[in-house]
Design goal:
CATH class of the largest domain: Alpha Beta
Number of helices: 14
Helix content: 40-55%
Distance between the termini: 32 Å
CATH superfamily of the largest domain: Aldolase class I
Radius of gyration: 19 Å
Strand order of the largest sheet: 1-9-8-6-5-4-3-2
CATH architecture of the largest domain: Alpha-Beta Barrel
Low-confidence stretches: none
Number of strands: 11
Order of helices and strands: HEHEHEHEHEHEEHEHEHHEEHHHH
Largest sheet: 8 strands, parallel
Number of domains: 2
Length: 317
Amino acid sequence: MNRICTLFDIKYPVIQGGMVWCSGWKLASAVSNAGGLGLLGAGSMHPDVLEEHIIKTRNATSKPFGVNVPLIYPELEKIMNIIAEQQVTIVFTSAGSPKLWTTWLKDRGIKVAHVVSSSIFAEKCAAAGVDAIVAEGFEAGGHNGREETTTLALVPSVRKVTDLPLIAAGGISSGRSMLAAMALGADGVQIGSRFAVSDESSAHPRFKKLVCELGEGGTKLALKKLAPVRLVKNEFFDLINKAEQNGATAGELRGLLGKGRAKKGMFEGDLENGELEIGQVSAQIKQVLPVQQIMDCLISGYKSALKEMFDNVKFDF
C-alpha cells in the first residue's frame, strides 16, 4: 500500500497545493472527492475566513482534507487554534521552521507535513517529528527556496537523508511526471499549477486564461532579496526586475511590492499590475478543466506511462 495513501487515508497519492487565492473550499473539496488530498490555502485567509472555508469543505466532502499554513503568517496563533478547534486532522506547513508548531499540532492528533527546498531542511523536519516531507523544486510557482534546486535534483537528495514519507512538488502536472517523481524516490506528489487552472479554483478567470496562453519561459524568479517567488512576466514583474537590476534594496523592493499584489492579480484579475504566481509547468497547461477530469487524466496517464515503461524496458545495455 502506498505510504501517502495510508498516512492521509486517501485513494491516490496526489496532494493539491494550498495556493494563495486559488485554494478555497470548492477546490479542496473537489480534489478530496476525486480521491486526492485537498488543501485550503490559509495564506490568503483571515482567521474567520479560514474557519468558514473549513466548515464549507467539511459540508462538501466526507473525505480527508487539510490546511496549508505558511509559518510567516501574521495571525498564526489564531489560525492554528481554529484548525484545532475545527478538528482538522492534516496540516501542511511551509515558509518557516518545522520546530515551531509540529509538536503542538501532533499533540492535538494532527498529522503534519512540512515543505522544504533542501536536504538540510529535510533533516530538520525529521528531527522536529513531522509525519511527511514535501520536497519542492525550483520549478514551482509562488515562493521558492533560495537554493534554486530543481525537483529532479532535490527529490533524490532528500530521499538520501530521510526515510519519512516523501512528496515531490514542482513541475508536476501529468501522470508521466508523477511517475518520474516516484521513480526518484517520492511516495506521492503535490500539484499546484494544474489545479490552480481548474474550474473549481478561486483564481480569476482572466488569470486562468492567461496561464493557458503562457509558453516556455513565461515565468521567472523574482524578489530574491525578500523571498524568491516565481511570477508571470507582466508590467509588475518588469518593474521589479528593473529595480533589482539597478541594485534596489530590500526596503525599496518592499515599497514597490506594497500590499495585496497577489490578490490584485490572481483573485481580482489585474494581469498587468498584479503579482501572478504560477509554475514553469504552466507552459504545458492549455485548458481550464474540472478537477475530476484533471485527476482522471493524471491517474490514467500514470498507469499508461508505467505500462509503457515496463513494456519497453531493455536490460541489454
